[in-house]
Specification:
The protein has 2 domains: 1-30; 33-241, Lipocalin, CATH 2.40.128. By secondary structure, it is mostly beta strands. The protein contains 2 helices and 14 strands; from the N terminus they run αββββββββαββββββ. β5 and β6 form a beta hairpin.
Length: 242
């Protein structure tokens, strides 16, 4: 073969191999990372004082969702050609709602709570080398049909006793039954919550595990990725006295 023909052919083969390798990295790279689950933030020095046990200050009453709150989802997806799954994570700070705490004969109760999340502002926060994960957000919004169902809402369905110690600023864990509405479908769920109250601020963090098909949601699907139907909804909510 003449040299002047051989060189372009070899160059084309090399470039083709590089392009194929680039495509592999783009879609199937094992260089992936996901942020840790949302939990309570470390207490600030100014919040270290015990919460007041007075029914008129600092603990009982209605609390409003404050700035800095986060909510989102994490779901496992598997790239073609990979043996391990990747945890896709998206979050938004567009969260609103209220929480009400009351005193009872046996201590304190979470008597009401409603948390609403705007789904259109969910943005992916995990990383996959060579892949723009924000491309996933459009598919998720389509799957959730956010134009018709723009919000997800969790509402406490019955009063729940708050473990002793929360009124003095300790972190407590409590299971809270409620109604979760996603995609226009409402189902009973149980949220596992951590609660910490200090002076005039409080914070709640927790999660709810759901099956997307129960809410009429079909997991996004593309040729190189399979998405599991189980999703974990997570939140870290800052509260201030209303």
């Amino acid at each position: 073969m003449p040299r002047k023909l051989f060189i372009p052919i070899v160059a084309t083969a090399v470039l083709g191999g590089l392009a194929a390798g680039g495509a592999y990295l783009y879609f199937f790279s094992s260089l992936r990372s996901s942020p840790a689950a949302l939990t309570l933030s470390p207490p600030s020095p100014s919040a270290s004082a015990p919460a007041s046990t007075s029914t008129t200050s600092g603990y009982t009453g209605t609390w409003q969702v404050a700035s800095g709150s986060l909510a989102g989802y994490r779901v496992k997806e598997q790239f073609a050609g990979q043996t391990s799954t990747h945890e896709a994570v998206a979050r938004t700070g567009d969260v609103s709602g209220t929480v009400t705490i009351a005193q009872s004969a046996g201590g304190y109760q979470l008597t009401a709570a409603t948390i609403t999340v705007q789904l259109s502002s969910l943005a992916s926060v995990d990383t996959v080398a060579g892949y723009n994960v924000t491309n996933r957000d459009r598919l998720v919004q389509q799957a959730l049909d956010v134009s018709s169902y723009p919000t997800a809402t969790f509402a406490v369905s019955q009063p729940v006793a708050i473990p002793a110690g929360a009124e003095t600023g300790q972190t407590v864990t409590v299971a809270v039954p409620g109604q979760l509405t996603v995609h226009g479908v409402t189902k009973g769920v149980t949220a596992t919550l951590q609660l910490r109250v200090s002076a005039t601020t409080a914070q709640v963090a927790g999660s709810i595990v759901i099956n997307m098909s129960d809410y009429g949601v079909t997991p996004p699907s593309v040729g190189f990725t399979t998405v599991q139907t189980t999703a974990t909804l997570e939140f870290q909510v800052n509260l201030s006295r209303a």
